Every structure is written in structure tokens, then in C-alpha cells.
Amino acid sequence: MKKLSVLVIGAAGYVLGSRAGRERYEQIKRQATKAWNKPVVQDAADTVEQAVKSTASDVGSKIADAASDAGSKVVHKVKGDKEPEAAPGSGGATF
């Protein structure tokens, strides 16, 4: 997460700086670095990173369940079997 943000900020700074000249680029770079190193920004980045990690884990398991259900349905369709009823509370492939 941090690397991606640094790359995005760096790329934006490069593009803006190359259009405005080297001096402006260096100024933007200093300001971006100063802003990125503020504790408030770092705390927010850490909070977002933790939220993404926990959500990704939950979404990953839901996707795996949905893929398994879809695979089972395909097998039953190919074999010509009647599809099994969804288990109560399973919710199918909804996220």
C-alpha cells in the first residue's frame, strides 16, 4: 500500500514537474514527501492498509465459496443432474 502511494505521488510529481520545469518538480517533490511523512497521513495509511487486508481476506473466502458453488452447478448441468438446493443461510454467491 505504501509503495503504491509513493509511486503514484512520484509519478504525479514527475508529470507535473516535467511540464513546469525542474525547479517546480523539486518543490512538488519536497511538499509531497513532507505531506507523506506527517504522522496523521501515516496513521491514515496504516488504518486503510489494515482495513484492506481484513476485507481482502473476507472477500477471498467468499469468492472461493462462490467459485465452488458455481463449479458444482456446472458439473450438475453437464451431467444432466438436477441442481442441489442451496443450503439455508448460504446466501449463494452474494457478497
Description:
It is a single chain. With 95 residues, the chain is mostly helical. 79% of the residues lie in helices and 0% in strands. The model has no long low-confidence stretch (mean pLDDT 77).
Largest sheet report: none
Q: Could you tell me the number of beta strands?
A: 0
The number of helices is 3
What number is the mean pLDDT? 77
Strand percentage lies at under 5%
Show unreliable segments: none
Q: What's this, in brief?
A:
The protein is built from 3 helices and no strands. With 95 residues, the chain is mainly alpha-helical. The protein is elongated.
Task: List the main descriptive attributes of the protein structure presented here.
single chain, 95 residues, mainly alpha, elongated
How would you summarize the topology of this molecule?
Blueprint: H1 2-20, H2 22-36, H3 39-79
Helix pairs in contact: 1-2
